[in-house]
Structure formats: C-alpha cells, structure tokens
C-alpha cells in the first residue's frame, strides 16, 4: 500500500499549493489582517475554499466557510517586540509566560479589526492557532497549540477583550513545553503564530449553540475494517453536536464513503450500541462555555425532542434488551419521556445514512477534488446541517501518510509463536527484534481503583526502557480520556513505543476504536508508530492469553503490568488486512520476577 499512497502525491500540484499566497487573491485578501504569511492552517483552509469555488461543480461551489478573519504572523512579531526582557520571560514557567502575555497589548490594527468583525458577527467564536510550521506536509501539530470556542457574550468591549485574551494565550502556547518538546523532537526549530478568528459553526437552539453534525474526513481510508473496502474510498468520522468530540478518543460514527452502511464494529446490536456516541457537546449560553451532556439525561433528551421533534430519529435510536439479546427501535416511534426500563438512546446515524446518500456522494467528491487540487491525500474538518444541506469547511490540509511497503511472508513466522493477530484496520508496516513488550492485564485493570496510576506507571516504564523500543498491549482504547474505556496514558508518555495493540474484551466493556481524526491518531501516523486492534474470541483474531500468563516477565503485580524481555516481530499487511505480533521461540525463558 505504501507505493500506492506515494503514487497519489503530485509534486507539481503540491508545489503550486505551497506557493499560493491568499494575500494576492481578491476573494480573500480583505479578510487578512496584517502583511505576510497567515500560518499553515489558515492558508490551507483558504486554498481549499479557492479550489472548491473554482471547481464548477454546484455541490462543491455551495460549500461555505464561516465568516472569518486571518491575523498574520506580522502581528505576532509586533506583539513579541513590545515585551521587555522577552528572553527571560520565555525561559520561565508556562504560567508566568501567559501572565506576561496577557498584560501586553495586541497591535492596534488587530484590535480594531477584531472589534469590527464582532460588530457583524454575534455568534460564538472559534479562535484557532495557525502557525508557520503547521504549513508542513508532515507535521500537523494536532493538539500541540491552543484552539478555543468562546461564547464571547456581553457588550462589544467585553467580547473584544475575551477574543484578545484568547489570542494572547495562543501566542503564549507557542513557547509552552508541549509545543517546544514536539518541535525539538522533530528538529523543527522555532515557530511563529498566525491566528484564525471564525464564527463557530452551528446555530442557537434555545440556550444552546451547536451544529447538528460535525466531523473530520479523509480522502484515503488507510485502516480498512474489511477487504471489501478500497484505500481510495475515503472516510468520515461523524458526531452529533460540536466537532470537538470527533478529535478525541470518544465514540463517533465511522463511514466508508463508498459503502456508508458497512460498520467497523459489524451489525450486531450490542456491538453497535457499545460503539455508538452518547455524549455530545454544545455551547451553553447561560454558562458561557462548552458543556458535555449524555443524550440519555432526561432534561437533555427532552430539550432535543423539543427542538428536533421527529428529526432526532434521523440520528438516534433506542437500544433495548430482550433476554440478553439487544435490538433497536426507532426513537420517534417508540420512545416516551417517562421511560423506566433499561433501554437507552444512542446516536447511531442509522436512518441518516439511509435517507441521505447524496451527503456521502458529495463528501467523496469534495475530498477527491481537494486531493487533486493540493496534489496529495487530504484531511478536513467540517460541520453539516442536514435539514438545510449546509456544509461548512473548517479545515483542509494535505494528509501525511507514513506508510511503507509490506514485505510480510508466511515464511517470516518460522521459529516464532504468534501471540496476537488482527484481521481489520491494519496498515502496512514491519518491526523486527523489538526487545520489550509491555502488557496491561485486563483482569486487573477492569477492577483497578486508580486507573490513572497505571497510566503514569507506563510513562515511567517508557523512561526506564530508553533507548530501547517496546510494544504496548492494553485493553480497550489506549489514550482514552475515559479510564473505563482504556488506559488514559498520554502520548508524551509513549515516546519509545513502536507498536500499540488494543485488545477488545467485549464482556468487560473494552473495545478498540478506529480513531481517525483524533490528535492521538495523528501523532501515531507522524511518528510511524504501528497500531492494530485485536478482538479476543473473534474469528481471524488471536489473543494468546496463556502465553501472557506463563511467559517469563517482570511484574508490577498490584498494577497488572507485565514487562517481557525477548525478541518480538510485528508484521502488518494492508492488502490482506492481517496484523501479527510474534515472539521468537527460545526468548522470554526463565523465571518470573516480582517488581512490586
């Protein structure tokens, strides 16, 4: 697959994409504040809109971009120049950097433009980073800088002040350890920050503001869940409510654009329920902030039914139990507000998929057009109001694909024991002679009182194993923000990990999840960390639990962590959708050792 992906890069078009300057385009120049570069995120978004407007295809030309202004890097330079003793400030702790930045003034032309923008836009506002280095093909800086949705209520002066302070906080993040360490790790040097100030997608529905649906899209499907899908089909990760949920390791609906009805989790009602979105986000006009609610909270469900009526059944269904076998009912036909049984509402998008085939055709055309225009595979962020067929483009950039050609052959397994095997969501890659494997025992983790302690212990193991690499095997979703779904380890705690295997144990509630579009996934791709999910007990999958229980290892007994020292190989073949972790026979021999 690696050669197939690399063959989709058109160097001539990619060069044209990078050389395009929106300041020279009359359609966009008036929205730019200051001279010079506006940063990678801003420039790529405007290039995407330019490409769609020039496509001549009605369903692409009709794509909108929320009202926005783009503050150039020049403003960042002017802002820094007025801070006395800047070098000493930047060498101090993050809190002091932010305080000093908040005390400084933005350039007058920036402040005036923010005020004039807010006079015309009274909706909530998104303030987004757009740094110079975000213009890189490979490094997206996903989650490394700050972007924020603001209600920005009050009179004009209060709203202007709120936006100004958020810009200063983004400027400060340029020098925070997370961003500095990321740049140092990849030898990228210093960065400069542009800013996007954009009307937040959505509309007011009573006291809450949000789009009905939002998500991320890819022109390539690099992790197919069955061989019936093609890499070039494209993929969406769609959520109900604010798109902030689509970039986290929470549940979202995954669609192949050529076959939207084909689910990664299959069609068994219980598995669909386990992978369906229940929590969603809105901007609360009373609280002035983003809030997260569960659709099953009675007050929230009443609110949604009041504002959507029967339309809510396009996105959500009722899951019911019947003698241990679950089944689905349509929300608008079966659910009553005084429900007292064990049923629950889940966002499945089932009827939306059946009733809106034109949406998926439109998104496939849009992604292919952007890929052709930019000269490389692309990823986007978007919001969509189905009742209005209103599609807003929020981000568009070339997609880095770190795939390599697979050379896996069955003969490579001679003299080795297969301890893990996957049959879906596998890309190409290979590792040989990995010296360590770190394993989190699901039987211990599921009852652990402090799951965050286990995550921090993995971070410490990561440090101790340096400079050696290792494979991490853990239940559920590694890096989950919800410890009940998987180990909440931070990506910065996995710097020496070269392969992550997520083990699905459905009876315990641990289910791997294809996290395209999340910041965690982007980091894996950039650092060429291999990933595969293993579904214990399912055909085509191997989880050799007896090996993990009997092989020689160092144990952290109270945390359920085991460290195996041996010789491990990883083979992944996208064409056959096979992923394998094997241990060379004769390694991992000896006596187990207790660490704690």
TrEMBL record:
<dbReference type="Pfam" id="PF01326">
    <property type="entry name" value="PPDK_N"/>
</dbReference>
<dbReference type="GO" id="GO:0016301">
    <property type="term" value="F:kinase activity"/>
</dbReference>
<protein>
    <submittedName>
        <fullName>Pyruvate phosphate dikinase, PEP/pyruvate binding domain</fullName>
    </submittedName>
</protein>
<keyword id="KW-0418">Kinase</keyword>
<feature type="domain" description="Pyruvate phosphate dikinase AMP/ATP-binding">
    <location>
        <begin position="37"/>
        <end position="399"/>
    </location>
</feature>
<dbReference type="GO" id="GO:0005524">
    <property type="term" value="F:ATP binding"/>
</dbReference>
<dbReference type="InterPro" id="IPR002192">
    <property type="entry name" value="PPDK_AMP/ATP-bd"/>
</dbReference>
<keyword id="KW-0670">Pyruvate</keyword>
<dbReference type="InterPro" id="IPR013815">
    <property type="entry name" value="ATP_grasp_subdomain_1"/>
</dbReference>
<dbReference type="InterPro" id="IPR051549">
    <property type="entry name" value="PEP_Utilizing_Enz"/>
</dbReference>
<keyword id="KW-0808">Transferase</keyword>
